[in-house]
Amino acid sequence: MAAQSPALPAAPWSPPRRQASLRYFLHRYARNRMALFGLWVITLVAFAAVFAPRVAPADPTKPDFGRLLAPASREHLLGTYDLGRDLLSRVIYGARTSLLAGVVSVGIAVAVGLPLGLMSGYYRGRLDDFLMRLTDALLSFPFLVLALAIAAVLGAGLWKAMIAIGIVFTPGFIRLSRAQVLSERERAYVEAARARRARRTGGSSGGTSCPTASRRCWCRRRWPWPQRSPRRPR
Amino acid sequence: MTRYLTQRLLLTIPVLFLVSIIVFTLINLIPGDPALLMAGGEAGQDVVEALRKQMGLDRPLVVRYAIWLGRVVRGDLGKSVRDGRPVLDVLRLKLPVTIQLAAISLLVSWCIAIPAGIVAAWKRRSVVDYTATTVALAGVSIPNFWLGIMLLYLFAVNLRWLPPSGYVEPWVNPIRSLERMVLPATVLGTALAALVMRLLRSSMLEVLGTEYVRTAQAKGLADRRVITRHALRNALIPVVTVMGLQLGGLLGGAVITETIFAVPGIGQLAVQSILTRDYPMVQGVVLFSAVAIVFVNLSVDIIYSLLDPRIRLVEARS
């Protein structure tokens, strides 16, 4: 895996004024039909998860012993499984767990990976060398195997599983945010900020590189469905 | 070239070290005292202490790491707690299976992805392109376990064309071996193909827009020739990288697919050893997969620099 992943092509620079870039983002988003479709799907799933007790047609834990493994019918829209529970309700309640697991584990990965990547790209030097070798090493582990091993260390439980997945996702975010900072720090506006003697933390996290760099990192947000390898071309 | 090569090789050393440290710490962080486990519940304090000493658990972690690393380097990965077989022997037994599965899966993926990617880029915005792109999107989105179960249901349960699971060595009976590999390889291959196809399409489009392609077209070469001889070669460069990474991932074990189809490869071994708490085996499998991926990635980088000389020039300068 490229310790020397080529920097992504730079997107046209938009003014760092927050409101303007938000409006620009919404404008672009609204024009993309696929993105809007995706938004609808996510909204639907999130809605079902939040209002699960209202939306679900049946109690997900109540078995209907008269109808084990029943096909789809009016009472059970998706049928029942071998314990006689309503499948649709199970799916709706399952969305709660999946959404929570997705948001929390990606949240952990971003919270840890983004600052480390920013520092790594901005300060370079030994910190960068160390972090890059560490991410190289972590990315060498097969996703599921590493997650399982970390889960074995942490013990059982949903929250611990989310932490395990979050840890496995972290190196990807470190690499991604670092690559963004590397391409961003060469830009004129960063130099201008430096010339104004902006503090370094201000330079990397406040008004300049961080918003632009982090914005691009959001593109990588994905739900941690376990069959997906985090190793995608970068 | 030599300079790039040495640079790249030197970078591998700290990575391997870190991999070994991560594996060692992970296993040692797992709660529970191995000495207590081995001695059993009724054993007295002194017996446990003696066992701990015998296993070297009384020594500091760093010393234990050094001893462990020394053994690993000499090829001693310890013995399975379950059946006492040396971990390395078990790995050696499972590796050919995983390699066979990986090879067939990659073959399936190329057979689908390369023609589809070329045609999709060539006939851009045509029905073919939209179909291929949509199918690829579906391929990326469909979970492996679902596709696996559906294929099993259709071909093994309903149509009874193929055996549902298991493994036969190819040198024992090549046809039976292949029969059992078809389904898992299709599941893995289609998932990989989707990614390769999308990548090839976009890189092909990029190359088709360059001036040397226009030159080739201007001097009157047939489309077919422009694409196969001129455009495809350059378009494949980034694709090769991804294919290499995919190979690495497959060698690390296609955990879910191997489990569904009961293919006795590295992935299944990983799951079984984790479920049965066979820690030396877990350690061996994880270490093996990670090291395999490190070396696959190393060779991908080297091949990449051979294919595209610009890479090594830029690297050497920085």
Helices and strands in order:
The complex is a heterodimer of chains A (234) and B (318).
Chain A: H1 18-31, H2 33-50, H3 52-55, H4 87-123, H5 125-139, H6 143-154, H7 158-184, H8 188-195, H9 200-206, H10 209-217
Helix pairs in contact in A: 2-4, 4-5, 4-7, 5-7, 6-7, 7-10
Chain B: H1 2-29, H2 34-39, H3 45-55, H4 61-73, H5 87-122, H6 127-141, H7 144-158, H8 174-208, H9 211-218, H10 223-251, H11 255-260, H12 266-275, H13 279-307, H14 309-317
Helix pairs in contact in B: 1-13, 5-6, 5-8, 5-10, 6-8, 7-8, 8-10, 9-10, 10-13, 12-13, 13-14
Characteristics of this structure?
heterodimer; A: 234 residues; mainly alpha; 65% helix; disordered N terminus; disordered C terminus; B: 318 residues; 79% helix; globular
Helical stretch tally of chain B: 14
Estimated structural class of chain B: mainly alpha
> Mean of the pLDDT scores of chain A?
74
Helices and strands of chain B, in order, run as HHHHHHHHHHHHHH
Strand content of chain B: under 5%
Sheet with the most strands, sense and barrel status of chain A: none
C-alpha Rg of chain A (nearest Å)? 22 Å
Characterise this structure:
The complex is a heterodimer of chains A (234) and B (318). Chain A contains 10 helices and no strands. In chain A, helix 4 packs parallel to helix 7 and helix 5 crosses helix 7. Chain A is mainly α and 234 residues long. Chain B has 318 residues and is mostly helical. Helix content of chain B is 79%, strand content 0%. The longest helix of chain B has 36 residues. Chain B is globular. Chains A and B meet through helix 5 and helix 6 of A and helix 1, helix 8, helix 10, helix 12 and helix 13 of B.
Short précis:
The complex is a heterodimer of chains A (234) and B (318). Helix content of chain A is 65%, strand content 0%.
